[in-house]
Automatic annotation (TrEMBL):
<dbReference type="InterPro" id="IPR004358">
    <property type="entry name" value="Sig_transdc_His_kin-like_C"/>
</dbReference>
<dbReference type="Pfam" id="PF00512">
    <property type="entry name" value="HisKA"/>
</dbReference>
<dbReference type="InterPro" id="IPR003594">
    <property type="entry name" value="HATPase_dom"/>
</dbReference>
<keyword id="KW-0418">Kinase</keyword>
<protein>
    <recommendedName>
        <fullName>histidine kinase</fullName>
        <ecNumber>2.7.13.3</ecNumber>
    </recommendedName>
</protein>
<dbReference type="InterPro" id="IPR003661">
    <property type="entry name" value="HisK_dim/P_dom"/>
</dbReference>
<feature type="transmembrane region" description="Helical">
    <location>
        <begin position="156"/>
        <end position="179"/>
    </location>
</feature>
<feature type="transmembrane region" description="Helical">
    <location>
        <begin position="6"/>
        <end position="27"/>
    </location>
</feature>
<dbReference type="InterPro" id="IPR036097">
    <property type="entry name" value="HisK_dim/P_sf"/>
</dbReference>
<dbReference type="GO" id="GO:0000155">
    <property type="term" value="F:phosphorelay sensor kinase activity"/>
</dbReference>
<dbReference type="Pfam" id="PF02518">
    <property type="entry name" value="HATPase_c"/>
</dbReference>
<keyword id="KW-0808">Transferase</keyword>
<feature type="domain" description="Histidine kinase">
    <location>
        <begin position="250"/>
        <end position="463"/>
    </location>
</feature>
<dbReference type="GO" id="GO:0005524">
    <property type="term" value="F:ATP binding"/>
</dbReference>
<keyword id="KW-0902">Two-component regulatory system</keyword>
<keyword id="KW-1133">Transmembrane helix</keyword>
<dbReference type="InterPro" id="IPR036890">
    <property type="entry name" value="HATPase_C_sf"/>
</dbReference>
Length: 466
């Protein structure tokens, strides 16, 4: 039995607590034993004195010594009829060091005398006073050596501790058996189900069925079963999404090739002699271009192989100007619903990042903001600001649009579920978050309400060493 196990520690604590309890009762037990010992000596001395009185107080010296030795005392004094009479006597080896009156029932004083005697191994001569049995006199007193009494007290204490130790071990073993059956067994069952489930999470037979009679263990089994059901469902969903992603990637690959051909043909429509065709051609080219971009984005996300960022130190203001220029050219606002871009980038601000990847992130945020404002058919503003502190660079992209719906906020950076606009896939923000995480930074939504939305990009100044 190992003390690193539940049962081992349970048994150890049981032994310790039982021994502590026995220590608390040891002093009272030894105190009572000492009192009984002294009362026994008084009774033996009284019996010896009666033998002398039965012979008209005439007894041989050797017989007197034998009576005293059998009683374990030096002298016996008996008071009868208010007369104190030395009945049996022998020479004292040393002066009397203490007197104890057993007629005094003060337990605390007796306990104190008991501890004193146990801690004092030197033999001493003491006087003990008590009441004779069977009304054989008014009192009886004896003188005796403390050595035999102390030896008997020590022997009794050792026996008591030995019995306590045996009782503790037996109790610990019984409790250990009970703990094995009532506690450890159910816990091992839970562990076995966890191990089996970890080895084969798609096998429903490994899901535990709560059956423990103990409330706490049954609650643990119920929690484990709920978690296993959730994980199994999640794994099945992820497997279906993976299969769907592979199918979408294949479709996107073929569709991209078809759209690329259509894009080439659409470019030639701009040279048509029909004015209506020439006016329609740019919009058709733009639509096909966006479809091609969507296919390429889906393929890139499906591969899950975004390249590691190539970090360089560059000025941020020109990059932001490129993003703003591209979005202004792509803007298609309704009359009276223009989108204004406002930038607040310090002229000398330089940051360390992958320029192309950061462009993709800013372009995605700006495009989402522009499309959200255009959907309201009202004028709006997009603000791009940046700054730095001692530990990081930060960029802020805010807009005065309608804000994000609750569903979009709940699944903001989840692919295929966090789409902001109708018909969107949500890949843009998912890819943007992955790109910023690749820089060791973070992309988060600071606010989104009826006054607009605001995203914040944080890029660390210190390059982490792996």
């Amino acid at each position: 039995m190992s003390f690193n196990s539940i049962t081992g520690r349970f048994a150890l604590l049981t032994i310790v607590f039982v021994l502590l309890a026995e220590i608390f009762i040891l002093v009272p037990s030894v105190t009572n034993f000492r009192r009984d010992y002294l009362e026994t000596r008084l009774e033996r001395a009284q019996i010896a004195s009666l033998a002398l009185l039965a012979t008209d107080e005439s007894i041989a010296a050797d017989l007197e010594s034998e009576l005293l030795e059998n009683a374990g005392v030096y002298n016996v004094v008996l008071r009868r009829d208010d007369i104190r009479q030395l009945v049996l006597s022998s020479p004292l080896p040393e002066p009397i060091s203490a007197t104890y009156d057993l007629r005094d029932r003060n337990f605390s004083a007796s306990a104190r005398d008991t501890l004193h005697r146990l801690l004092n191994p030197r033999p001493q001569t003491i006087r003990v006073i008590g009441e004779p049995v069977r009304d054989a006199g008014q009192l009886i007193e004896i003188t005796m050596n403390t050595a035999p009494m102390r030896n008997a007290m020590v022997e009794f204490a050792v026996r008591l501790l030995a019995v306590s130790a045996a009782f503790s071990v037996l109790t610990a073993l019984l409790l250990n058996l009970a703990a094995q059956r009532l506690i450890v067994g159910p816990i091992r069952r839970v562990i076995g189900h966890m191990t089996a489930y970890a080895a084969s999470p798609d096998d429903s037979r490994t899901i535990i069925t709560p059956s423990a009679s103990m409330g706490e263990v049954r609650a643990a089994e119920s929690a484990l079963a709920a978690m296993q059901h959730t994980v199994t469902a999640s794994l099945k969903q992820r497997e279906r999404l993976a299969q769907l992603g592979q199918a979408v990637a294949k479709i996107s690959h073929d569709l991209r090739n078809i759209l690329t051909t259509g894009q080439i043909l659409a470019d030639r429509l701009e040279e048509s002699a029909d004015p209506a065709v020439r006016r329609t051609a740019p919009k058709l080219v733009g639509s096909i271009s966006r479809a091609v971009t969507l296919c390429e984005t889906t393929l890139a996300f499906g591969k899950a192989e975004e390249p590691q960022p190539s970090l360089t130190l560059f000025h941020l203001r020109p990059l932001v100007a490129e993003v703003v220029e591209a979005e202004e050219l792509a803007a298609e606002p309704a009359p009276g619903a223009e989108v204004d871009f406002v930038t607040d980038i310090p002229a000398g601000l330089r940051i360390r990042a992958d320029r192309d990847q950061l462009y993709r992130v800013l372009a995605n945020l700006a495009r989402n903001a522009r499309q959200a404002i255009e959907a309201t058919r009202k004028p709006g503003t997009i603000e791009i600001a940046a700054g730095e502190d001692e530990s990081a660079w930060w960029l802020r992209v805010g807009d005065s649009g309608p804000g994000l719906p609750q569903k979009a906020r709940d699944n903001l950076f989840q692919p295929f579920t966090g789409g902001i606009r109708k018909g969107g896939t949500g890949l843009g923000l998912a890819i943007a978050a992955d790109l910023i995480r690749g820089h060791g930074g973070g992309l988060e939504l600071i606010r989104s309400d009826e006054t607009g939305s605001e995203f914040r990009i944080t890029l660390p100044r210190v390059i982490a060493l792996v």
